[in-house]
Design goal:
This protein is α+β, with helices and mostly antiparallel strands. The protein is built from 9 helices and 22 strands. Helix 6 crosses helix 9, helix 7 packs across helix 8 and helix 8 runs antiparallel to helix 9. It comes from Roseimicrobium gellanilyticum.
């Protein structure tokens, strides 16, 4: 009997333990099922939509709104998401359309809403002007990550932070502040991944267009990489096609903070001059430009080089070719063409200008353009042989030293004035005066023969009557010189030179140009 009672007691205890375990399993399962059902309902509720908007707003220090949220398995669809700033950010609206997010619910066990991928059909960022940025900021609000209706024991299981692994955007637009000339981007294909520091993103883009203030033609983006945070957009490397077949690389910063200006630098390659010169120069100047540049809202600096440069069809060059009997002046091939250019407003400084055609001519110096007005100081070097038909040019004009210039040239300075449409230089008159003085130093019959040769070079033969006129004036001037003395003689010489120059202009057409 005792043995039966003991066996019965053990069996009862075992059944109680089994029932207890079953009840515990059912209870835990029920709680888990309840939690699962509650979370599933919560994910589809306005409360979750509000929480997600709060998380999104917190990520960019702004206020976010989400429209038309729907679930399909682990994928969340939002028709529109918008964010406005709560701080002094330089943007006033970030708006996305056609948003699809893939959520990893397993990560919720670790307290994280993990979004493995976000895809947007379109994302637009509107910038705001300095005047639109508030001076006084509202106090920060505390985010509520769990709704009040949630059971207290469940709140500690609900994720309190969000992790996004990747964002892909089919079309990204960056719009400058209304009424301002700023940087703009249109239809850029963009991918983004979070950087190591919180709130920053690493961006990679392709296609689309970029427009910079003061630059008429848009840049067609090939590829770009950048870093975005609340303070700025830092362009690490960008490559774009520009006018024609030219290519531009760029790097720089676009700050969102008040009072900080954007700045970019890079390189321009394969830009044909025909795309940047006025119509009146298309048949006169050609070549391919390359440049290293730095640009800010107020100043553009660049180091320019032109390859395969050619200058032709200029009346001045044709006159020089006739005058010097050197046909290479009609079509000058530039073996070197470089300059440092700085532009601010309507003022352009061209410094360290070098134009050289080997074995023919070299020009170097500085030029300033103020609107259409032009002013410059140049050094011009030519080979002595090209001056043999210009009496007095080597002895009285091309006599200046230029230690920095290449050997073999003789040098003189040239002052440039006038406008871009009508450039004036002082070299021609100085050559005429030199020729006039030289005419007083040679026998009259030789001077007359020189005039005949100059006329032939200019394509307008000088008649014997004209030669006689010049020699007569020279003889008259010489007689006055012989009669004078001291200062009077010096003034008479100057008058004789001026007389000779005036006669030359009338006799040889090239001197009237």
């Amino acid at each position: 009997m005792k043995r039966r009672k003991k066996k019965s007691s053990n069996s009862l205890l075992l059944r109680l333990l089994l029932w207890g375990a079953l009840i515990a399993v059912v209870a835990v399962g029920g709680v888990g099922l309840y939690g699962y059902i509650w979370i599933q309902g919560y994910l589809k509720s306005p409360a979750f939509q509000k929480m997600l908007a709060q998380q999104l707003g917190n990520a960019v220090k702004g206020e976010a709104t989400l429209d038309s949220m729907n679930w399909s398995g682990p994928n969340l669809y939002v028709s529109r998401a918008g964010v406005t700033p709560k701080g002094s950010q330089g943007w006033k609206l970030i708006e996305g359309e056609g948003v699809e997010a893939s959520v990893d619910f397993q990560a919720a066990r670790s307290g994280v809403w993990r979004v493995t991928r976000i895809h947007l059909d379109r994302l637009r960022m509107d910038l705001r002007s300095v005047a639109e940025i508030p001076q006084e900021l509202p106090s920060d609000t505390v985010l509520e990550t769990a709704p009040p209706s949630m059971p207290g024991w469940l709140k500690r299981w609900l994720p309190t932070r969000t992790q996004i692994d990747e964002v892909n955007i089919d079309r990204f637009d960056l719009v400058p502040a209304k009424g301002t000339e700023g940087v703009s981007v249109k239809e850029l294909v963009l991918g983004a991944k979070p950087a190591t520091d919180a709130g920053a993103w690493l961006l990679r883009g392709s296609e689309g267009t970029l427009t910079l203030p003061g630059v008429k033609e848009r840049f067609r983006m090939t590829c770009t990489s950048a870093r975005l945070d609340a303070r700025s957009l830092a362009l690490n490397d960008g490559v774009a096609k520009w006018i024609g077949d030219s290519e531009v690389t760029a790097r720089g910063d676009l700050p969102f903070e008040k009072g900080k200006a954007w700045q970019f630098s890079g390189h321009v390659a394969n830009l044909e001059l025909k795309h940047v010169l006025g119509a009146e120069w298309l048949s006169k100047v050609s070549g391919t430009l390359s440049s290293d540049y730095e640009v800010t809202p107020t100043v553009l600096k660049s180091k320019v080089q032109v390859k395969n440069g050619v200058v032709e069809n200029l009346p001045l060059l044709n006159y020089v070719a006739d005058f010097t009997r050197t046909q290479r002046f009609r079509r000058v091939v530039l073996d070197a063409a470089t300059a440092d250019i700085e532009r601010a407003g309507d003022t352009t400084h061209v410094r360290n200008l070098v134009l050289q055609s080997d074995g023919l001519v070299r020009v170097q110096g500085d030029v300033t353009l103020q609107g259409r007005a032009i002013q410059g100081k140049l050094m011009v070097g030519v080979l002595p042989d090209s001056l043999r038909w210009i009496p007095g040019s080597q002895s009285q004009v091309f006599t200046e030293p230029n230690p920095a210039g290449p050997p073999g040239f003789v040098w003189t300075h040239v002052n440039i004035t006038g406008t871009v449409d009508s450039i004036r230089e002082d070299l021609s008159n100085r050559l005429l005066i030199a020729m006039g003085k030289a005419a007083l130093d040679v026998p009259l019959d030789l001077a007359g023969r020189s005039l005949e040769m100059l006329g032939e070079a200019a394509g307008a033969p000088v008649s014997p009557t004209a030669v006689k006129e010049v020699t007569t004036e020279v003889m008259k001037a010489g007689t006055e010189v012989l009669k004078g003395s001291g200062d009077a003689a010096g003034k008479t010489v100057e008058k004789a030179v001026e007389t000779g120059v005036d006669v030359l202009k009338g006799v040889v057409p090239i001197f009237g140009k």
